[in-house]
Write a structure and sequence with these properties.
It is a single chain. With about 180 residues, the protein is mainly beta. The protein contains 1 helix and 10 strands; from the N terminus they run αββββββββββ. Strand 1 and strand 2 form a beta hairpin. The protein is globular, with a radius of gyration of 20 Å. The model has no long low-confidence stretch (mean pLDDT about 85).
Length: about 180
């Protein structure tokens, strides 16, 4: 039994010695004006922390919060999104990757003002893949861009979506600091 415990400690220590912890995230600001409609302002913040297992694999978790405001209505959502990142190509300081994971959270909508305000909330779930690219600016700083989502999204009693989304609303820009 002592040999098994010692072997596990040695394996974990060697894995931890070659691994690297990183933290960072992304911020977003978006203005949307449908034809004949009101301007919707969206703000999002998504801090994340991750662990580099090897040159090809990372694991991470993100906490995403977004707020959308239009005239007379607002929507707020928060979700927790663990994921695994596979880096499939690297050339110099540029790496190409795909994140695979899921998200669980809730969304709340408020319509109206003051005494006439109606509030509703719903469970939100997503599972899928996000391709991206990262630029190693220095040994400690990395810039990251993700574009698109391939998978399934659902907000209970509101909508569900399955497929590929590649547009400016699916663009995420961020920065990581490794230590």
């Amino acid at each position: 039994m002592k040999k098994v415990i010692l072997a596990a400690i040695i394996a974990f220590t060697s894995m931890a010695a070659s691994a690297q912890v990183w933290m960072g995230g992304s911020l977003g600001l978006n203005f949307t004006k449908p034809e004949g409609g009101e301007v919707a302002t969206s703000f999002s913040i998504a801090p994340e922390v991750g662990y580099t297992l090897s040159d090809k694999w990372d694991i991470a978790i993100a906490l995403n919060e977004s707020l959308t405001i239009t005239d007379g209505a607002s929507a707020n959502s928060i979700s927790v999104e663990p994921y695994a990142r596979y880096t499939f190509a690297k050339t110099g300081i540029v790496s190409f990757f795909v994140d695979g994971g899921f998200g669980i959270g809730s969304a709340a909508v408020a319509v109206g003002d003051g005494d006439d305000e109606e509030v509703g909330s719903a469970f939100a779930f997503s599972i899928g893949f996000k391709p991206g690219v990262k630029f190693a600016v220095s040994e400690k700083i990395t810039l990251v861009a993700k574009l698109g989502f391939l998978g399934y999204e659902q907000v209970k009693a509101s909508y569900s979506n399955f497929g590929l989304s590649v547009d400016n609303n699916a663009l995420s820009l961020g920065m990581y600091w490794s230590f």
